[in-house]
Amino acid sequence: MPNGTLSWSNLTVIENRSSISSSDSSTESTTANFTIAFPDVDWLALQSIYGWAALQYTVWARGSFYIHADECTGVVISAAPTLEVWVDEQHSFGGDLYGFRKAGLVRRLSPGEHTLELRLARDVRAMGGVGAPEIRVELGLEMPKTPIALVKGSVIIADVIGTGGLASPHASFAVRNNGGSWITISSIKSHGVSLCNQTRFRHTS
After folding, report:
1. pLDDT tens-digit profile of 61-120?
2. Is residue 1 part of a domain?
3. What is the H or E stretch that residue 125 is in?
4. Would you call 46 helix, strand, or coil by DSSP?
5. Over pLDDT 70: what percentage of the chain?
6. Which residue has the higher pLDDT, 152 or 192?
7. CATH number at residue 34
8. 131 by DSSP, 3-state: which?
9. Which of 95, 134, 176, 196 lies at a C-alpha separation of 20 to 30 Å from 120?
């Protein structure tokens, strides 16, 4: 801050709730987007002395959320751009600094109120060096009803070559364990194109 002191400030966010149901899955989710900025800081003066490094910083955001359920349930937490996530004083490294949203944090939480703390980062290489160095935070909470889920947008396959086929027989995708026990993936089966063998998922305790 301009006088060299740090303090907490209050920020109100607007959440968007949704519920998605299909024949084999059901998910309740809520999202909240907000921006962290420091308009009182003379960023141009700092940049003239320290260069691009003056526009990079980390901050903490603290809030709470409420689980409306009858029993302990899995909650998928996604937050970008984050370095660390704390849920009820339990620490998790490996946030989503660049907003790829490939691997959300899954926690088994009991009904009631929970505290969420995020260590956010402002990176010039990812967010640019033009304009005010703000952090636009995208926070999401999901309560999936199925024990496993294919992460949306995670499927990667090879390009199609001139003959109409794929350049490689290999593909990749992310599967998320939403349950409270280990899941063993024993084999994989594709529909329409024979890439691998049959897929079966088995819970192991």
Report:
1. 999 999 988 888 889 998 888 989 999 999 987 678 888 777 788 899 999 999 999 999
2. no
3. helix 124-127
4. helix
5. 83
6. 152
7. 2.60.120
8. coil
9. 176
The tokens for 12 are: 């109100």
Same domain for 163 and 185: yes
Which stretches of the chain are assigned E, i.e. beta strand?
A: 14-21, 26-36, 57-67, 73-80, 82-87, 90-93, 105-109, 112-122, 135-144, 148-150, 156-157, 171-172, 175-177, 182-187, 200-204
CA pair distance 66, 33, nearest whole angstrom: 17
Q: What is the dihedral of CA 190, 203, 21, 107, to 10 degrees?
A: -120
Beta bridge partners of 69: none
Residue showing tokens 């660390």: 84
Domain that holds residue 157: 147-205
Counting Cα atoms < 13 Å in the Cβ hemisphere of 181 gives 7
